[in-house]
Amino acid sequence: MTNDAGVAGTRVDAMAELAMASVSVAVTHALHAGALAPWFVLPDRKGNRVALDELLRSGPVVLNFLRGSWCSFGEERLARFFAMHERIGSEGATAVAVAPPDTSMHQHDRLPMAVLVDTDLRLARAFGLTFDLPESLRDHYLELGYKPPKPRKCGDFLVPVPATYLIDKDGIVVFAHVDFDYRNGFGEESLLKAVRALHGRRDGFRIAFPRLTPY
Q1: Fold designation for 4-198
Q2: What residues does each domain of the chain span?
Q3: CB atoms within 10 A of CB 153
Q4: Nearest to 87 by CA among 192, 185, 197
Q5: Does the pTM of the predicted model rise above 0.85?
Q6: Is there a contact between 45 and 99 (Cβ–Cβ < 8 Å)?
Q7: pLDDT in tens, the chain (215 residues)
Q8: H-helix segments, the chain
C-alpha cells in the first residue's frame, strides 16, 4: 500500500512533469551562447538602480535567473549561487541574481551580492525565459505564494525559467545554461571554467546594447 508521503511525492512529480512539458517548448527561444545580451536597468532589493553596462565596466557578469523564494528549489538555487559568488569574483566576474518581485525575500537584503527585482518578468522575457503555466497548475502555484506578472494577453500566466548566463565585457553571452527542469541546479564547475576562460582576455571594442521593448 502506498503511504501518504508516497502519494504526495507522486503528485508533485506529476505536476513538475506537466510544467516541464510546457517549458521545453517555450525555452526554444531562450538566448544562447553567441547572442547579444539585452540592455537593462533593474532595481535591487534596496531600490538601487543597477545597469548592465555599468556592471560590465568592471568585467564579465554572471546572471542567475531564479524562480523566487516562493519556490523551495529557487531558494536552494540562490543558496548555491551565493556559496560560489566569491569564487566567481576571484575570477574577475560579478555575480548577480535576478528574481521576480517577492515580499518574502527581504531576508536576502544583506547578501553581499546584488539580487535584482524583475518586475513583470520583463528581463526574463527578453532572455526568452518564461512559459505559460498550464491552467491545471495555476491554483497550486498561487497557494505556494507565486504572484504572476500582469498578463500580456488574456489568459497568460507566465512563470520564470531558471537559467545562468555569463556575459563578457562586450555584452555577448559566452555561456548559457537553461534549466528545463527547475528541480535541477546549474553546473558550478562548468560555469567557473567559462569564467576562467575569459580571465585576462584583452578588452574588445564596446558595442551598443539593444533596449527592451515596452511591455
Answers
A1: Glutaredoxin (3.40.30)
A2: 4-198
A3: 6
A4: 192
A5: no
A6: no
A7: 444 433 344 555 566 566 666 666 667 789 999 999 999 999 998 889 999 999 999 999 999 999 888 888 877 888 888 888 889 999 989 999 999 987 555 555 556 678 899 999 999 999 999 988 888 899 999 998 899 988 767 778 999 999 999 999 999 999 999 877 777 766 778 888 899 888 755 444 344 444 444 33
A8: 4-26, 52-56, 72-90, 122-126, 135-144, 188-198
